[in-house]
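Table S2 (continued). Query chain:
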Amino acid sequence: MSGSTAITIVIPAYNYAKTLGRTVRSVVPQLNDDDELLIIDDGSKDHTPQVIEALKVEFPGRFTALRKDNGGLASVRNLGIEMARHDWLIFLDADDEMAPDSMALIRAHLAENAGSRMVIGGHWSVDQAGRRRQHSPDKLPQTPIERVKSYLLDKALSISNGACVMHRSIFQAGNYPERFRNAEDIPVFAQTLAAYPVTLLPEPLAMIHKHSDSLRHDFGSSLAGGVELVDEVFKRLPAELQQLRAAFYQQRCLSLFRSACLAGDPVAAKRFYCQAVTSDWRVLLKLSYLRKAIRLWMGRLDG
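Corresponding output:
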């Protein structure tokens, strides 16, 4: 592995033939000769393989493409870690874009912050109508517990794949958990904030496209992971951070309750709300959730 600031960009691709070309075209012009671009097709069922072949003609020798059986986003990222030539990694989803000049910004930041092990950058959030909203990290809490709390509970510290750069050493505490089809990045980000030097780069590094069919909004995948995500996160964290577990469990239950309501699944919604209340009766004081729960038990599930 290299000890320089050369970067490996990993693009996981699963059924994103329509957007993969846009993603690759945002990356290739920014690559230095010693950077690396890996495109990993996770067993796509659309014409992603044909798009990759066309991109090979458009950008000869500029990237390496692999195809594997479908195993989910976590499995692709883990393969990317294994295959990467370099220590610094960016995981850019196949429906997102690298922002202009972001690689130059990253190289300069790494040169000035040699001890950093994760760089949290800003990003543009782009909705389906093309409207953009800029998100810039402006404050990093000083202690591990404050950082993890800010990320997991307060949602004051936002981290997006594609807009952060990670050193491979952070994965010594654990790779992406492959049994989760979404939210698989939460345990990795939490373990990094808990134990490794982190720096902020406020400028936008990526354009994150929001759309309804994204795995971010797939309730089936969220339901499969359920509250087991809490165990996955906290088994990676040191003893002094276990005090955050109960609050995260409650928050996870309420998040799943809300998602189940939106998905029109009253059975799952009731289960997760009851789990949240059982964990802490003060959940009943959260009026927005209480009103939704009352409508649910009255048979008026409206999301």
